Amino acid sequence: MIDGNTFDVTTLEATLDYTPRVYQHYAGICIYYCNFDYLLFRKTWCEDYQGASLDLLRVTNGERIENPGSRVEIGDSKVRLRLTVDGRSLSFAYQVGDAAFQTIGPAYDMSEFSDEFCTGGEFTGTSVGLFCVDALFHSQEALFSDVVLRQEV
Predict the structure, then answer these.
(1) Contact by Cβ (8 Å): 93, 84
(2) Alpha carbons 84 and 69: distance in angstroms, whole number
(3) Which of 41, 80, 95, 119 has the highest CB neighbour count under 10 A?
(4) In a structure prediction context, what are the per-residue pLDDT tens digits for the chain, which is 153 residues long?
(5) How many CB atoms lie within 10 A of CB 88?
(6) Terminal Cα-to-Cα distance of the chain (whole angstroms)
(7) pTM score, two decimals?
């Protein structure tokens, strides 16, 4: 809510230039409630493809839930990522080059990012953002460009 307006649709988009080398490297966009409740839309290394892929990682009440059915081989190309909150529905999509956006994964229920749903963790408040993790070397960088946050009444 800004200036008394409630937004029906919020969209975060960013272009990601990132080359993961191991599965401990990942970067992308996220929705974050607290350390026990978040969802990452990430570009990471995939052992199955022996290259980069996009996937969704959900942590709900501290339980890590990977959705291998949402994994897409992406290679080293730049990719445009999109997170959309439409009412109580959260969805993700990606675009490579001039191709149309492709939806990835299921739609998620935004009510799961709340005090009423989360049974643990430390309250932060629901927010969207960009992230980069190098859990191995602590030196990998991600380049984000053309970041746009749109809110429609």
Answers:
(1) yes
(2) 20
(3) 41
(4) 444 456 588 899 999 999 999 999 999 999 887 777 789 999 999 988 899 999 999 888 777 888 777 899 998 889 999 999 998 899 999 999 999 999 999 998 887 777 667 666 667 678 889 999 999 888 889 999 999 999 887
(5) 11
(6) 10
(7) 0.86
